[in-house]
Amino acid sequence: MTRFDVAVIGAGAAGLFCAGVAGRRGARVVLIDHAERLAEKIRISGGGRCNFTNVDGARDDRYLGEQPRFARHALRAFGPDRFITLVREHGITYHEKHRGQLFCDHSSAAIISMLVDGCERGGVAWRRPCTPRALRREADGFVLATDAGELAASHVVIATGGLSIPKIGATDLGYRLARQFGLAVVEPRPALVPLTFDAAVWQPFAALSGLSVPCQVRVAAEPAGASGSADRGDPARPEKAPAFDEDLLFTHRGLSGPAALQISSYWRPGQALSIDLAAGEDLEAALIAAREGSRQRLDVALATLMPRRLAETWLTQWLAGSDRGAMAARRIAEIGSADLRRLAQALSAWRVEPDGTEGWRKAEVTAGGVATSELDPRTMQATRAPGLYFIGEVVDVTGWLGGYNFQWAW
Ligand code: FDA
User: Fold this and answer.
1) pLDDT classification of 232: cutoffs 50, 70, 90
2) Could you read off the pLDDT of 185-223 as tens digits, one per residue?
3) If 53 and its partner were Cys, which of 18, 137, 153, 407 is the partner (CB 3.0–4.6 Å)?
4) Digit-coded pLDDT (tens) for 235-288
5) 3-state helix/strand/coil string of 172-202
6) Is 62's C-beta closer than 6 angstroms to any atom of ligand 1?
7) Is the CB of 405 within 6 Å of ligand 1?
8) Does the Cβ of 103 fall within 6 Å of ligand 1?
9) What's the 387 CA to ligand 1 centre distance in angstroms?
10) CA proximity to 260, closest of 55, 50, 401, 368
């Protein structure tokens, strides 16, 4: 049986990087992955241009998990600057987009080549495609049984990622191995994922599909009814979930776009969202100003402050069933300040109650995973299973949208 110092299971972002570094530091490393195509998530990331980090990638408040500060040790030891240096050394040109997001100028294939090159220089042995069958502890390390035979390793690094996009190779192997060695797993759930609504509730808004508007979104202060999930890593506490100023995209089934994806990581079933469709502007003042000398109908005046289709649909829904039903057709000049204030308040705190998410098929990442309380934050070694390490998305650390998840993987 071939013996290695380190066996890394999963040749995605975290596994490729880890194997290369360990190999270049002199360890005999084997890297195992069951997928036919290498590092498919890196390849498709960032629309094919890999948003490989964020200039703010070392900020631990950009990551969520049961222990929000767990990531700080790793991020201090290896922050975005270190990865950017590597990218530069490899002659990969990149550019900064929205909010510090760094993308390759050309193709994410350049990042994959850089990581593969790192493994080659470290003399990493490849086993791929190769499916691990069982991992057992032996006196001097571990034995990994695979469909290509057994191998022995003193240390095993689990880098099998999360559950999103199963069709490109995501599995729950990492969580199963954690449980096998007695480690707690925070129930995995789709994150950075579009939110869905009850079809009847959403029906009026479905017609807005494709419309994108700037907004500010947060988890509403009061739960919408149900008490939320009982998983370990209890429901997002609204006071802890930040507000996101981003674009919101209406879809046939609900809400997507950066605003919905960001808040989805914090949202739990049973919670409502509060959406400021005025995106932080003083809508009341704008409506009162619009009233001066205006002969416009209210719905027409509102449409000067936001997309017309949204103004009409939203106003119709807001007025439906209220005694102000005819207000939309009245001239704004005839509407009292109290009603305009109520309207402005409702638009800046539009309360919606998602009934779910688009699930693993559409989730960009997995929240939850191997509990950080089980891992040493400086080494990622399982404190109760010496020699066993967990890195990347399989761990209960989830980054915001915008390059944070790759930074965590590196
Ligand atoms: P990753 O998923 O990269 O790798 C896991 C590896 O383990 C895979 O190669 C898989 O085949 C292997 N594996 C799984 N089960 C196995 C088993 N049973 N046996 C053997 N091998 C197994 N993030 C970001 O920061 N910027 C971005 O631009 C994007 N864009 C993006 C787009 C899309 C469409 C998705 C789905 C995701 C992103 N992400 C992202 C998230 C990012 O891709 C993700 O967080 C990292 O790839 C996680 O790296 P890991 O190495 O932990 O898992």
Assistant:
1) very low
2) 999 999 999 999 999 999 999 999 999 999 999 999 865
3) 407
4) 444 437 899 999 999 999 999 999 999 999 999 999 999 999 988 788 889 888
5) CHHHHHHHHCCCCEEEEEEECCCEECCHHHH
6) no
7) yes
8) no
9) 23
10) 401
